[in-house]
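Running this now, will post back.
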Amino acid sequence: MKVAKEGAVFYLPSLALFLLTLVLGWWLASLLFLLLSAAFLFFFRDPERRSPQDQNLVLSPADGQVIKIEEFSSHPDIGGPGRVISIFLSLLDVHFTRSPLAATVERVDYQPGKFFPAYREEASSQNESNSLVLATDRGRLFLKQMVGVAARRIKCYVKPGDRIAAGQKIGLMYFGSRVDLYLPASVELKVSLNQKVKGGLSLIGEWRDESKN
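Update: finished.
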């Protein structure tokens, strides 16, 4: 099983303490550290994914559950109208964020903030977050990574000007979090509320063929 390198600061100390307590004969402590090590290794797992590269498709940016689908009239980066899809990541989900489509990273903005539970509405505007504007020939998308009560750090792998592929890993959020994806009205939704999705695999939407309108 491939594991994210960022997880080493968590599972290596736990493994070291497991070995130490095992040598000392502290069986209960060694069992607890073994379980903790396994939990960290599971959380930071990095499964191989082959994402479809169809330019008309918008893929899920994260693993988790769709907790909100809501219309908006305007947005400073993508205009409007459109819809926002919120995906909540539990501690059991893979926590990499992936690009929903092939695009150019136009802007990356980190915003310090609070740590409300990621599923609450105020988390979208008040929690620590990292936002990306993704530009394509068909229009822009706005993606926002947010951390919650347990998650206290966001790792971003991309910078403005980077060209990214659909399904490419663009970030990692630690220990429970949320991703909001803002889509223009020209994207037809293919996802429903409460649906479980997989980053880089599940279909969120599809660009409409404007020539048929």
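The chain has a mean pLDDT of 89. More later if anyone needs it.
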